[in-house]
């Protein structure tokens, strides 16, 4: 079984939190709402990986003003690939709280859409299991 270290930002802007809807039919949580983030690449530091993932998935215009390591956890997930292949992966999640200076997002192909969501509205989204656990740990749902 392959192991991946995942960097995951919990991004807040003026009392709202960024959720991204995963593309249908691919990824670990197809079609569900999630936090952004992804796997570290060989030779990267944790901070380099987090900033790269934010830039790749959310675009260059989003500015983060504070990045703070918050917590970690692990689990085993099944990843679905666009070609129909599936893979079991042991995932280690490194989760950061982040403050955004703005809300300018340009999504890549991993996501269908995004939303800046107030705390009280978070339970109304079809959150994937990992995101639900993270938001519960943070006291947001």
Key terms for this structure?
single chain, alpha+beta, 7-stranded mixed sheet, 2 helices
| SS strand fraction | 35-45%
Tell me the span between the first and last alpha carbons: 32 Å
**Count of DSSP-assigned helices:** 2
What structural class do you assign from the helix and strand content? Answer: alpha+beta
Kindly provide the radius of gyration, computed on alpha-carbon positions and rounded to a whole number of angstroms. 14 Å
Structure description:
It is built from two helices and seven strands. It has helices at 46-58, 129-137, and strands spanning 2-13, 16-22, 33-34, 38-39, 64-80, 86-100, 111-118. Strands 1, 2, 3, 4, 5, 6 and 7 form a seven-stranded mixed beta sheet that branches. The model has no long low-confidence stretch (mean pLDDT 94). It has 141 residues and is an alpha+beta fold. A hairpin with a 5-residue loop joins strand 5 (64-80) and strand 6.
Please provide a brief summary of the model.
This protein is of the alpha+beta class. The chain has helices spanning 46-58, 129-137, and strands at 2-13, 16-22, 33-34, 38-39, 64-80, 86-100, 111-118.
Topology:
Elements: E1 2-13, E2 16-22, E3 33-34, E4 38-39, H1 46-58, E5 64-80, E6 86-100, E7 111-118, H2 129-137
Parallel strand pairs: 1-6
Antiparallel strand pairs: 1-2, 1-4, 2-3, 2-7, 5-6
């Amino acid at each position: 079984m392959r192991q991946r270290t995942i960097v995951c930002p919990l991004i807040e802007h003026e009392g709202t939190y960024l959720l991204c809807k995963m593309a249908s039919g691919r990824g670990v949580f197809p079609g569900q709402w999630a936090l952004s983030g992804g796997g570290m690449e060989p030779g990267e530091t944790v901070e380099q990986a987090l900033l790269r993932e934010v830039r790749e998935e959310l675009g260059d215009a989003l500015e983060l003003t504070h990045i703070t390591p918050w917590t970690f956890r692990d689990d085993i997930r099944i990843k679905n690939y666009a070609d129909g292949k599936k893979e079991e992966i042991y995932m280690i999640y490194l989760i950061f709280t982040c403050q955004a200076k703005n809300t300018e997002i340009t999504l890549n192909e991993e996501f269908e859409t995004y939303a800046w969501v107030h705390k009280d509205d978070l339970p109304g989204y079809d959150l994937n299991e990992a995101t639900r656990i993270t938001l519960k740990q943070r006291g947001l749902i």
